Amino acid sequence: KGTKVTVLEDVVTSGGSAIKAAEKLRDAGYVVERVVTIVDRQEGGSDALKEAGLELKSLFILKDLI
């Protein structure tokens, strides 16, 4: 209990999967404040994560890859 963990996600679109993972981890007693993703598709996931109390760190955003 109380251990800080970061959720790692390959791609963030809506943020739903990362939020579900964070909720499960929080329910188990972990402290989750951040999600790290390889690619943010810029389709609202960042806002949804922020609303859920999670900071999003992206290695790339979609517009950088196009």
Secondary-structure blueprint:
Elements: E1 4-12, H1 16-27, E2 31-40, H2 45-51, E3 55-61, H3 62-65
What is the alpha-carbon Rg in Å? 12 Å
Structural class: alpha/beta
Main sheet attributes: strand count, strand direction, barrel closure: 3 strands, parallel
Q: What average pLDDT do the residues reach?
A: 96
Q: Write down how many β-strands occur, each being a DSSP E stretch of 2 or more residues.
A: 3
Tell me the series of helices and strands, N- to C-terminal. EHEHEH
- Helical region count? 3
* Residues in helix, %: 25-40%
Strand content: 35-45%
**Strands side by side in the biggest sheet:** 1-2-3
Task: Write a short abstract of this structure.
This protein is of the alpha/beta class and 66 residues long. It is 35% helix and 39% strand. The chain contains three helices and three strands; from the N terminus they run E-H-E-H-E-H.
Protein traits:
66 residues; alpha/beta; three-stranded parallel beta sheet; 3 strands; elongated
Explain what you see.
35% of the residues lie in helices and 39% in strands. By secondary structure, it is an alpha/beta fold. Strands 1-2-3 form a three-stranded parallel β-sheet. It starts with a strand and ends with a helix. The model has no long low-confidence stretch (mean pLDDT 96). Helix 1 links the parallel strand 1 and strand 2 (31-40). The radius of gyration is 12 Å and the shape is elongated. The protein has helices at 16-27, 45-51, 62-65, and strands spanning 4-12, 31-40, 55-61. The protein is built from three helices and three strands; from the N terminus they run βαβαβα.
